[in-house]
Amino acid sequence: xxxxxxxxxxxxxxxxxxxxxxxxxxxxxxxxxxxxxxxxxxxxxxxxxxxxxxxxxxxxxxxxxxxxxxxxxxxxxxxxxxxxxxxxxxxxxxxxxxxxxxxxxxxxxxxxxxxxxxxxxxx
Length: 123
Known about the structure:
By secondary structure, the protein is of the alpha+beta class. Helices cover 35% and strands 28% of the residues.
């Protein structure tokens, strides 16, 4: 059994890491928790560090958004990820990274345009 931990309060020393990855986790959290996790990631990264985040993003077309919602089961009543995913997409991952003290430096979108990877640096 793995121990449970709070990613918004790891208890690790500040500026410990030169690379941090958050892959497919933020969209499952309410905005307040996402903000806490990103602030903790900022605290843990060294000044010359990189953060890599991979999450759902805004799509170019309504059709693409419709298809993604079907694949990710966002249409299922009671799906707890539906509300938090929509909130992350509406608020914008860029905005949340900036609010936590990161500056996006590179972006890559998947094809189809359902997800994006953002490489960011602390400011």
